[in-house]
Specification:
This protein is an all-beta fold and 53 residues long. The protein has one domain (2-47). The protein is 0% helix and 34% strand. It is elongated. Its main location: membrane.
Length: 53
Amino acid sequence: TGGVDNLFDKRLWRAGNAQTTGDLAGANYIAGAGAYTYNEPGRTWYMSINTHF
């Protein structure tokens, strides 16, 4: 058996994907949205395999 839960949910709750750069006491940093820009919110893929003899 296999399937997808929450297939028709089209809402995309995304963080902005702009990057921020700066200098914090001599240490440079780059920060972005990272994994928050993933396009499948709440979607679950599942598969189950059963056997018996």
